[in-house]
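Quick one, C-alpha cells below:
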C-alpha cells in the first residue's frame, strides 16, 4: 500500500513538472511568433491587434456592444478576482478567454476534493495544492486578503470581482474599492440560488451622489454571525454557482467595454441593480433596482470614516464588525463523550442495552449516511417546537421519537450531528423537556460529531 502511494505521488509530481514545462514551451513559442524579424514583417499589416487576436476574438468583436474599441479596452484592462472558488473559477476562464490583458487571482486556500464539483479550474491531481498555482496568463497572489495588503493589491487593477463567501471579506473588498475608485462585481451562491450586483459604478469620490452604491449602502449592518451559512453546511449545486461566476464575467466585460474613453461619455448605461437567480423557480431570474448611495455611509457617504490610512493601520476591525462564531461548548465535560469513548461504550453493551442514538442532522444529510440504529430527529424541528407553545403545554413535542417514550426511562440518550454543535443544543432541549428524569437518565452528545467518528473510529464513514 505504501509503495502504491509513493508511486502515485511520483507520477503526480512528474505530471505537474511536465505541465509546467509544456506551459513554458507554449509561452516561448508565443513570444517567438510575436517577435517576428523586422525584415520579414509586412509594414502594411500594422493593425491594432495581432493576427492571432483577430482570429481568436473575432466572433465577439463583430458583436455591436463590443467591436474593436471594446476589444482594445479588454486588452488594456486589469481585473482582480478575489477568491478562486466556485465563483472565481468560471469567471477567470471566461475573462481569460475574452482577452482581458491582466488577470489577477488572490486566494490563500488549498484545493479540497469537496471543491471539485463546482470549482472548474481545479482537478483531482490539484488536491492539496494552492488554488493560485502560477499560470502564464495569470497574476497569482497566494495570500489571504487583509486590510493591510488590500490597498496595494487593488491599486494594480481596474475592476475587482468579489468571489468570496464571508461578510467580513466582502465589506473589506467594497471599502477598499471605494477609497481607490474601483468598481466591484459581487456575487454569491448557496443551495439553488444566487445573487449578483455591480457596486461603486460609476466609481466616484465619497460624497458624490452620482456614484453607484457600495456594499455598505446595500447592507449597512452585517448579518448575525450565527445566521451565515456556508456551502459546506447549506450545500450548493455546482451549475448554480457556475451561472453566477459566468454572470460575473459577463458583467465585468460589460463594464469594461462600456467605460468612457478620452472623456467621451458612454452610451451604454449600467443601472445599479441586484440580479437574483433561483434555479428551481419560473422564471429563474429577477432584477431589483438598487437605491442610490446612502448619505451617511461610512465608506462612500458625505463624511466617510474609512480611508487608506484607517485600512492600513488596522483601526477598522472587520472580524469584530461582522462578529465571529466561537466553537460551541455549552455542555459540561460529563455530558459529552468522544467518538472513541462512545465506540468503546457500544462494544461493551449488547444490542438490547445500547440506549437511544439521536441524529439531529437534517433528513437530506441523514439519508446520505448514518450510524446503524440511529434515529433521525432534524434539529430544525427541535428548534421550531422549542419556540412554540407546544413546548410549554406539558406535552412532549411531536418530534420526540416513540423509542424514547416506550423504552426504559433510564436508558441513556446519545445525540450526534455532523460536527458536534447542533447536538449540544438538542441535548439541552431534551433535558428541558424533562427527559433526563431528574438526572436518572444520561443525556449527552458525541463530541465532534460524525466528523470525529470518521477520523477516530471508522475512516470509511462517508466524508461529504
Amino acid at each position: 500500500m505504501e509503495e502504491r502511494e509513493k508511486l502515485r505521488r511520483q507520477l503526480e509530481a512528474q505530471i505537474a513538472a511536465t505541465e509546467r514545462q509544456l506551459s513554458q514551451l507554449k509561452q516561448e513559442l508565443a513570444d517567438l511568433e510575436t517577435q517576428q524579424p523586422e525584415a520579414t514583417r509586412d509594414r502594411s499589416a500594422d493593425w491594432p491587434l495581432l493576427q492571432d487576436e483577430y482570429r481568436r476574438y473575432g466572433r465577439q468583436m463583430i458583436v455591436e456592444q463590443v467591436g474593436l474599441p471594446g476589444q482594445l479596452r479588454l486588452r488594456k484592462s486589469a481585473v482582480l478576482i478575489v477568491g478562486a472558488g466556485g465563483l472565481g473559477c468560471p469567471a477567470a476562464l471566461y475573462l481569460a478567454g475574452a482577452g482581458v490583458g491582466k488577470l489577477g487571482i488572490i486566494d490563500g486556500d488549498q484545493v479540497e476534493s469537496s471543491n471539485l464539483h463546482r470549482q472548474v479550474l481545479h482537478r483531482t491531481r490539484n488536491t492539496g495544492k494552492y488554488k493560485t498555482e502560477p499560470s502564464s496568463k495569470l497574476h497569482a497572489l497566494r495570500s489571504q486578503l487583509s486590510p493591510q495588503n488590500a490597498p496595494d493589491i487593488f491599486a494594480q487593477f481596474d475592476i475587482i470581482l468579489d468571489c468570496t463567501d464571508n461578510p467580513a471579506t466582502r465589506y473589506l473588498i467594497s471599502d477598499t474599492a471605494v477609497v481607490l475608485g474601483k468598481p466591484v462585481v459581487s456575487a454569491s451562491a448557496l443551495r439553488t440560488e444566487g445573487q449578483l450586483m455591480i457596486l461603486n459604478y460609476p466609481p466616484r469620490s465619497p460624497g458624490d451622489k452620482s456614484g453607484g452604491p457600495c456594499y455598505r449602502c446595500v447592507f449597512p449592518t452585517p448579518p448575525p454571525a450565527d445566521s451565515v451559512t456556508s456551502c459546506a453546511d447549506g450545500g450548493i449545486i455546482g451549475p448554480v454557482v457556475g451561472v453566477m461566476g459566468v454572470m460575473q464575467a459577463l458583467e465585468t466585460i460589460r463594464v469594461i467595454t462600456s467605460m468612457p474613453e478620452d472623456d467621451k461619455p458612454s452610451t451604454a448605461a449600467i443601472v445599479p441593480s441586484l440580479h437574483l437567480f433561483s434555479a428551481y423557480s419560473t422564471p429563474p431570474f429577477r432584477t431589483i433596482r438598487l437605491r442610490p448611495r446612502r448619505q451617511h455611509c461610512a465608506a462612500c457617504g458625505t463624511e466617510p470614516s474609512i480611508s487608506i490610512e484607517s485600512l492600513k493601520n488596522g483601526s477598522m476591525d472587520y472580524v469584530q464588525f461582522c462578529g465571529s462564531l466561537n466553537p460551541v461548548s455549552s455542555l459540561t465535560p460529563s455530558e459529552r463523550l468522544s467518538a472513541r469513548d462512545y465506540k468503546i461504550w457500544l462494544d461493551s453493551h449488547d444490542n438490547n442495552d445500547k440506549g437511544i442514538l439521536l441524529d439531529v442532522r437534517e433528513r437530506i444529510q441523514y439519508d446520505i449516511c448514518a450510524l446503524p440504529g440511529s434515529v433521525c430527529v432534524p434539529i430544525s424541528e427541535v428548534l421550531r417546537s422549542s419556540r412554540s407553545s407546544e413546548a410549554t403545554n406539558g406535552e412532549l413535542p411531536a418530534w420526540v421519537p416513540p423509542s424514547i417514550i416506550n423504552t426504559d426511562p433510564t436508558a441513556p440518550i446519545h445525540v450526534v450531528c455532523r460536527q458536534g454543535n447542533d447536538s449540544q443544543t438538542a441535548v439541552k432541549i431534551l433535558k428541558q423537556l424533562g427527559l433526563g428524569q431528574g438526572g436518572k437518565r444520561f443525556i449527552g452528545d458525541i463530541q465532534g460529531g460524525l466528523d470525529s467518528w470518521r477520523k477516530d473510529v471508522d475512516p470509511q464513514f462517508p466524508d461529504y
